[in-house]
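Predict structure. Chain length: 454.
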Amino acid sequence: MLLSWPASWKQLTPHPTFIPNAFFSTETPPPLAPSAIANLLRQCSSLAEAKRIHQQLTVSGLASADPVGVVRMYVACGAPAHALRALERLHPSPFSVYWWNALIRRSVRRALPDHVLHLYLRMQRLGWKPDGQMRVCGSEPNVVTLVSVLSACASVGALPQGKETHCYAVKCVLTLHKNNHCDDLMVTNALIDIHSGMVDQGIGYFNSMARDYGVVPGVEHYACMVDLLGRAGRLDEAVNLIKGMPVEPSPIVWVALLSACRTHKNVELGEFASSQLLELEAENDGSYTLLSNIYANARRWKDVAKIRSLMKHTGIKKRPGCSWVQGKKGTATFFVGDRSHPLSQHIYDLLVDLIHRIKALGYVPETSFALHDVDDEEKSDLLSEHSEKLALAYGILTSAPGIPIRITKNLRVCGDCHTAITYISKIIEHEVILRDSSRFHHFKNGYCSCRGYW
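Prediction complete.
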């Protein structure tokens, strides 16, 4: 007899720690229906629970029923190393590109850069090489593999491995074009997306797709165009473009518009974009955060409080901002207001000195990015505790003059930090390469490669 999920249990599924006692009450647990196994794996929220569930599934012979779920469970609990070991037991023979993709992509999504690099190096040791003979246990790598590995390298600032993989990816794209197997999706997206403010040129690329090359624009192309117009402040044109789309707008389209509303402080349109986005992705923490930021910029603190209350009530947690920087002893990780590092006092002392020096050059803290209802002086103090500033100070302290400082942030760099780092690059003997969720920023001698468009 299969043990399924009674209606009374379904009412308890919002509580991630709930596990049916019947499954653990005997040494030989009863068999579970596939849907029950899937639910059990999805709602696990801690490594201890994950180990317990996996052990019971193994005892009952059900672990192999949903190997993807087992891998997902461990990675979701922040333990991709356990996921890899579980996968090796479930698939003792060399596993395919599919499994490597699953492990790496989920680790990237969970913001676990050290584990991502570990997986990447493990792949190389098992024979996965980004060269002309590249194979994964006899299988050709696919686009997902290349995108996942490049994302992994970017996440941890692994420049040498990233260069190798990028060279191979370029060779793959050139081969596809030569054999007429490419629909220009990646290439056209890149041309539209890397615009640096050249709006009319981006529009020209978009219009020429169907007219000159017979390529029908997809949702991804429309999202790039909305982003292009939105960053330039042409919000009405962005809205009209969305209204004229031949397909339903996807979440990435509304995220692009919502981000533009945050940049240009358009509260009314931001509320509309947020409502559309939440209809498609009700659990997207980013949409709540962006709308909250829009309200904070408008000093509508009661609305900010409502958003936070709604997130708390629905169990949606805001993803914390986090920055990584390469140092002499590996990767150092910083969160906002972080004081856990042994060099914290030196880091904060250096930041005080740097901020004082760049104020003399004209830097003025952009307090609109301190999203709290406090006075401007306290907002300035809060801004100095942002993770990317802490990572930069650590990089300066631990890097020899002339050595580039490479920082990675899991979210978009805040406007004040971007301005501050631009000024700081004038007075330090380092180039700063910052990778955020949007693009790379190369700061040098008071300039950034993005030219203010990100």
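Summary: The longest strand covers residues 322-327.
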